[in-house]
Amino acid sequence: MESLLNMFSDCDMFSLTVAKMTESIPKVDKIKLLDSHLKDEKNRLSAYYDKIVEAGTNVPDFDTLFAEILAECEAFYEKIRGKDIGELCGKGSSPFICDHVGKDTKYSEPIQYFWRFYHNIQHVLMSNDSLLELNEIDALDVDALLDGEKALRGNFLSYEYTYLTHCTGGPLQLVLMFKLNEETKEWLMQFEDDFALEGSKFEDLAFYQNGELKFSSCTHEGFNSLD
């Protein structure tokens, strides 16, 4: 860890991802995620739309295309909602609409881009269902979350629930932001390197300078931005 801290000595903040999500979430964060998740995904998919157009594919405008694929995904998901995914796979019927791209979806070519549309939109629908099942609490109990971690508690800055962290996308994650100073550097020094975080309460270390990401480590997958 010492070499990393020396390499990024100008950084003033760092983040850690909570390794195990709880079954509760503050109501305000649940509402925010339900409101923003599909909008955020739509913004990300606009880059794939540009690639589809560049490939010469005849498609409607982006808003229309997104709305049509969303409607397809909603209809598909309604058919498999609540069913056992393992059982569906065992019967040879994929519970994921992206596996149908190029077979019976309205849009298919270029498949590598439309696969992303169908996959990502269904992921939002499934994630929102899981989010609705989480228990609501009034506020995140940061003191309890950082119990026994005095250095972290005294230098805590903020938190964010997100489906897209600095290094990975997928399930809901809770990311905590801290000041990077002598006290927190000493706390980090208990770990041999960033990958040694694996197995602790935290994972996926990142360093920031004035809000700009300078180092990203996906400790649970074993790679970082230096690789």
Describe the structure.
This protein is α+β, with helices and mostly antiparallel strands and 227 residues long. It has helices spanning 2-7, 27-54, 62-80, 85-90, 111-133, 142-145, 150-154, 182-188; strands spanning 13-18, 24-26, 135-137, 156-164, 169-179, 202-209, 212-218, 223-224. A 6-stranded antiparallel beta sheet has the order 4-5-1-6-7-8. The two termini are 16 Å apart. The model has no long low-confidence stretch (mean pLDDT 93).
From N to C, what is the helix and strand string? HEEHHHHEHHEEHEEE
Provide the spatial order of strands within the biggest beta sheet. Answer: 4-5-1-6-7-8
Mind telling me the C-alpha Rg? Answer: 21 Å
Q: What's the main sheet like?
A: 6 strands, antiparallel
Uncertain spans: none
Count of distinct strands:
8
Strand content: 15-25%
How would the blueprint of this fold be written?
Layout: H1 2-7, E1 13-18, E2 24-26, H2 27-54, H3 62-80, H4 85-90, H5 111-133, E3 135-137, H6 142-145, H7 150-154, E4 156-164, E5 169-179, H8 182-188, E6 202-209, E7 212-218, E8 223-224
Parallel strand pairs: 2-3
Antiparallel strand pairs: 1-5, 1-6, 4-5, 6-7, 7-8
Describe the structure concisely for a colleague.
The protein is built from eight helices and eight strands. By secondary structure, it is an alpha+beta fold.
